[in-house]
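Example for reference:
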Amino acid sequence: MQEESQEAEGESILDLEQEDLKPKPRPKLAPRGIEMFTVCRQHDETGVSGEGVIIEGVVLGTGQCIVHWLYPPPRGGIAIFDSMTDFVKVHIQPHPGNKTIITYQDGEQEIYGD
């Protein structure tokens, strides 16, 4: 049906440039852009990380999320997640009593908890 309408307009599917139809190589570079954020817990249900700003992190242009726990001193710990959603599912949503606030560098905030 679509082929008929294109032929009626004087262009056939077969008239497309062959180069347009060939598979293209993947781009050499991943998407760019880094968005920073902090995680603040108003309470600490487990008593492990403490209260206040406990994490600094970044979301890469690829969507991956890197978090740096500020505890235990002096260096804390680092983890990489496939996405910010995965990080939130593992470390934020299971602890609604923490009343967690994620604040991005542009000032946008996500608030979780009771």
